[in-house]
Structures are given as structure tokens and as C-alpha cells.
């Protein structure tokens, strides 16, 4: 999309020049990270790059998903890019705009787009497989005067440590295993009974948390969508979320590939550059092949999501391919860097960690392999028995 190319280059330059050098501080967290993140946000606003895919009427850039796809790669080349540029709440803004009550939309949407409010999404539980949301044990009971009382635990909740709101999947009816009777409730984290139980470092990285809800009271108009029909909203969110993350993983894989090539050209091994060695050339070829194979799958998935078409097969392929590609390309780059690729002087350890966790979080490879294969074979069976 040629008309987006200049904007994409501006975003890429901002992430490369402003976000990459800040990653060490941002990774460490704490007050210095918060102060630096806010400075980056102010710079993004001043540069006209703030919240590009969020609604223009709420203060965002109003960029459609198709146009945003290539920009998402550039933003996502750093884990901190989406937050610094204001696009991180896209999933939550989309969910609340489509399924939130009038009060919820009025109270929270503009603050989410401006960056004054932060949200997170809590679905997975310690004792329940994340791939089986129908087994959710967290419960929400009706209060006599209206509203709900929520009790349960969730874990691997991204950014819960400084969130103002959390969307919680809870059972409001039926029995464990039923696909109906589940609801999404928007819980202010300042509510009595809400507690961040602990941080869950993922291969040493911060950002994931376990939360506890002990009789947290939630207003009736803070249910998202229709009571008992949360899985439809969750499925819609997952399609967009997985496509977005796949785009960002491709951006990180491209970053790892660029580092691999720079190292091969600049580093001398004995009498010649590493680039002259056939085994290094093989690393370059295999990494490029993985990138060129995965990128079209990811963009095809985003196009289908943007068009509102069923994208479950395409998203499953894209998510799996992008996660594997990031892990493979980062691993090859580490191999070419040698010991330097294991230490703190390059982003490769973080990229490798992200690639490995990407194959589990947001649905493990095995889930997507089985789901995609079942859908394809089901459609083939249906076609085989349909009379001509």
C-alpha cells in the first residue's frame, strides 16, 4: 500500500532511533521505565504518530486495519513500540467500542486512546487449561440490587501490575464445561477485593501477573456484550489479537535477520568475513526463507480479519508461522553472533525469548495445528458428501 509507505518509514525510524535505545530501561520496569515511557509517548504525539490505528473521533489516527498492517510490523520490532506509540490498547478499545455499555464507552474509551488509562485481559487460570475456556472456574454471582460479585484467580495476565481495568472471563451461569454461561466483566482494579497476587517472570522477563478477585463487586453495566455469551466476544478478540501479534513477531524476526546480516558482513573470522563462509550463508538463506514464507500468511490473515471474514484457518497458520519464524531467525542470529549473542549487548536474547514464548502463549502450536487441520478436513468431508 504505497500511500502508507512514508508513514511506515517514519514509524520505523522512531522505533529504531528512540525506542531501541530505551529498551534496557523499559525492560527493567519501575519508576524510571514509567518516566521514560511517558517521554516517548509525548515525542510520538509531537511527531504525529500517536495511536495510529485507534478511532479518530477519540483522538487516534483513524488508520484502518489493512493500512495499519505494515506499520504494525515496524512498531512491533520492539516489544515496547506499541506502548510508546499508543497502539497497544487497540484490542481493548475495539472490544469496548463494540460490546461495552453506553456508560463504559463514555467512561473509558477516550482515556484508553489518550494513554491515561490502561487495561488488561484475564482469561487463563492456574488450574485450568488455557485452551479450554469453558472450564473457567472464576465465578460471578448476581447481587440482590443488581451487579455481580466476582471470585477467582487468573494468571499470565499481561500488564496487570499497572492496569486500571481488567476484563475478566467468569462463569455467570451453567456448569463447568458449558460453552454458554460465560461472561466478560470489566473490573476496575481499584475495587475492594482485587489484588495482584504476584508477578510471573517469563524466562526472566517481566510483564505477566497472577491476580486474585475476592468477592469483587462489579456494576451490571460493566458486563461486555450479552450475559452468558463471552466466548463469541473472546473469539472475535482472539482473531484480531493473534493477527496483530503475528505482525509484530514478523517485525521482530526482520530485526533479528538484519542483525544477522550485519554481523556476517562486518565480523571477520580468521582471514575473511563470516559472510564468505558457506555455513553462515546457509543461516542467512534459511532465515530469509522463513521470513518470506511467513510474512504473506500473516498479511493474508490480517486482510481477512479487516474484511470481517472468517479467518480462523488463516489466523492459526499465521500465528504458528510467525512464532516459529521469530524463534528460528533469532536462534540463527545468535549462532552467527556467537557468545556476543548471548549477552546484554544485543537484543537477541530478548528476541529469542519472545519467539520461544510465542509458541505457547496465546495458544500453543499444537492447538493451532489441530484446530486448523480439523477445519480443513471438515470442509473437505462436507464437500465430498454434498450432491452435485
From TrEMBL:
Domain Acyl-CoA dehydrogenase/oxidase N-terminal, residue spans: 7-116
UniProt-listed Gene3D superfamilies: Acyl-CoA dehydrogenase/oxidase, N-terminal domain, Butyryl-CoA Dehydrogenase, subunit A, domain 2, Butyryl-CoA Dehydrogenase, subunit A, domain 3
Named cofactor requirement(s): FAD
The keyword Oxidoreductase is annotated on this UniProt entry: yes
Domain Acyl-CoA oxidase/dehydrogenase middle: 120-212
MF-aspect GO terms: oxidoreductase activity
Pfam family, one: Acyl-CoA_dh_N
Family the UniProt entry places it in: Belongs to the acyl-CoA dehydrogenase family.
UniProt protein name: Acyl-CoA dehydrogenase family protein
Gene source species: Streptomyces omiyaensis
